[in-house]
Amino acid sequence: MSVRVLIVDDSVVMRRILESALRHSNLDLAEVLHAANGVEGLAALEESAANNQPLNLILCDVHMPEMNGLDFLLEKQRRNLAPNVPLVMITADATDPQVLDAVAAGAQGAISKPFTLERIITCVESLLPPAAHPPSAMGDAQP
Amino acid sequence: MMADRCTDTRWIEQLDGVVADVFDIMLRQCCEVVEDAAATAAEIDIAARILLSGAIDAQCLVEFPQATAKKLTDALLGAEDDWEDALVEDAIGELCNMIAGEWKSALGAAASASGLSVPAIWRARAPDRNPPNGCSLRMRRTYAFRNSPFTVSLAIREPRDI
Fold it and tell me: How many Å apart are CA A143 and CA A117, to the nearest integer?
């Protein structure tokens, strides 16, 4: 099973770090899409749906200009985009009430910055079906 | 009246611990406090500031010489390159974000009702280094990462209840 991931973050550096973590995991990665805010994230979801190229995972920053992570999640749900795709919030502010609101609204988890590569890998692998990370490769990650 | 220098070791140790944790967790790199006067006076090329507002008002400012900023970007991205200015500034903003977020968490429940701004970035010395009005506690610390200095400043209003 090839995996398509959307990373929504206004920081190019953070998007590259997250993509690097994904590429160090055991996931069979087909594509990693980048979006700089919630508006771009919604457009990426619309395009994926239109092209019948479903996503398997979304990593989303909380604080972003244009549209923040919580509003992105709520709007995604309102439009019924990627309804069963796990979404993980990424935040530097672990005590931000928006993180709890996002989890209450359906986000599958939250990861606080700073994080280790292993933290990202463990989280995303736990949210995807076994077919996304073949058993033969389990535990072989070398961040 | 604002204090020019914080002498409360609790606050200083807390900031030192936060900065060390960010570098250790995110980069697996050591970041040490620098007492050397020449290093603390190093020229500033890039600065990032995050404001904490709400129950507690505070400012977190990080200031980097270009050489240190480049090394930080190398470390975050896991490669050495001639990075575009925008990417280096982004890296400094992310570091400021993580330090401010960790520091806010370290303050505990008292700070949970305060929100963090997105990072504001300046080239050269920050034109607005002044902390929010009424800040009664200030501290400025210099650290070294891969033998290159940078500074982190905190200014806090009414910290007595924290």
Answer: 6
